[in-house]
Amino acid sequence: MTAEDADETEAIIRARVAGTWAYRTRAEIEATARFARMATELAEVGATPVVVRGAADASADESRHRDLCARLAAKWGEPNALAHEPPRTRIGRSNMDPRDRLLWEMVAVCCISETMNTSLMTRCLEVVKDEDIRATLRELLEDEVRHARLGWAHLAAERSAGRGQFLRDVLPLLLEASVEPGFLEGTSPVPWTDALYDYGELPWAELVQIYRDTLNLVIFPGLDAVGVDTSKGRAWLEEHAAAPRPPD
User: Fold this and answer.
1) Which residue would you say has higher pLDDT here, 142 or 186?
2) Among 50-59, 71-80, 179-188, 203-212, which stretch is predicted with the lowest mean pLDDT?
3) Which of 18, 20, 151, 180 has the greatest count of CB atoms below 10 A from its CB?
4) Do residues 241 and 208 touch, judged by C-beta distance below 8 A?
5) What is the dihedral of CA 9, 124, 139, 152, to 10 degrees?
6) Phi and psi torsions of 95, nearest 5°
């Protein structure tokens, strides 16, 4: 490898890693505020005490995650990630029963997003060699598992109470909101080098495959188990990501 090639590879690594951890910082800022609000609302609708307490604990976890992610973002070249302001928009429809809208949000945030994060970070830990990133990923992963279980516990309780039938029809909306625009097209917006594996990064095609596999092997079966009809969600997935993507 020439010195010029080495410099180009280093630039690709720094840009990708900085971007990843800045994105995660912004996500953790939003999650901190969201879980704090949901803890209050869960108590108001009579959710089980363990779920209410779990949401409050999750807010504290996400606040800690925010600082861990911001430190890595700054280290790799994104020093202003903490300046992000969480949006005021809510998940779900404003005209819904508040309890149903909260269930929509818990499924979106915990059953889908946190379960997906668990799969993603598990794979990242399999490849990462950078010790700082490895330690951070491990700490985040331990908490993401609990946050995912929180959503599944609340969903099971609400289904036992006869609620959540609406999830069948809105599942495609939940899935569409779970990915960035263009993600399932399988083309990376940034360059890739295999050296990125050492920093816990994955190529775009693998990210798409993890998304598909987690839905098919974990999330859809989990929803099926509590009586949520996933047929519309499965159809959405096949329409938007019908085949494995080509390599980056």
Assistant:
1) 142
2) 179-188
3) 151
4) yes
5) 140
6) -90, 10
DSSP string of 19-82, one letter each residue: HHHHHHHHHHHHHHHHHHHHHHHHHHTT--HHHHHHHHHHHHHHHHHHHHHHHHHHHTT-TTGG
Query: Which tens digits make up the pLDDT trace of 28-71?
Result: 999 999 999 999 999 999 999 999 999 999 999 999 999 999 99
Cα–Cα distance list, 19 to 27, 76, 147, 219 (Å): 12, 9, 24, 27
Question: Would you state the structure tokens that stand for residue 209, as one six-digit string?
Answer: 């495959």
pLDDT at 182: 85
Cα distance between residue 55 and residue 106, in whole Å: 10
Q: What gap in Å lies between CA 151 and CA 149, rounded to an integer?
A: 5
Q: How far apart are CA 30 and CA 214, in angstroms?
A: 23
- DSSP secondary structure letter of residue 183: G
The residue written with tokens 């360059």 in the block is 191
Please compute, for residue 181, the number of CA atoms within 13 A of its CA located in the half-sphere on the CB side: 0
Mean pLDDT of the chain: 94
The 10s digit of each residue's pLDDT in 137-158 is 999 999 999 999 999 999 999 9
Return the axis-axis angle of helices 3-44 and 49-75, rounded to nearest 10°.
Answer: 160
CA angle 244, 204, 21 (to 5 degrees): 150
